[in-house]
Amino acid sequence: PSSPELCSSKTLIVSSSQKNQNQEPSLRNQTKMYLQCYINEKGEKVYTTKKESPLGLATESAHPARFSPDDKYSRQRVLLKKRFGLLPTQHAPVKY
């Protein structure tokens, strides 16, 4: 097709002839993460594309947070855990 199509999942499909060969879109702009999840009455995780569960509660993203090896806030996180006694060294040893 000569014009972009809209799929049922609300994703824009552009044929390769429509893309400018010199300007390939970045992966960040190409991928859309619509998958959401919620916990049903039985305690099971249910995946959906809707923003609200059948119970009327908001769903959460089914995709993990982005990981960066450059952890800027590591020091602050350790200080807070130390302050509130949440470090593993501040607990009783685990019995195996």
UniProtKB/TrEMBL annotation:
It comes from the Eukaryota. It is found in: Nucleus, Nucleolus. One of its GO terms (biological process) is rRNA pseudouridine synthesis. InterPro entries: H/ACA_rnp_Nop10, H/ACA_rnp_Nop10_sf. GO terms for cellular component: box H/ACA snoRNP complex. Residues 1-29, 52-71 are annotated as: Disordered. Transmembrane segments: none annotated. GO terms for molecular function: snoRNA binding; telomerase RNA binding. Its main location: nucleus. Keywords: Nucleus, Ribonucleoprotein, Ribosome biogenesis, rRNA processing. Belongs to the NOP10 family. This is Nucleolar protein 10.
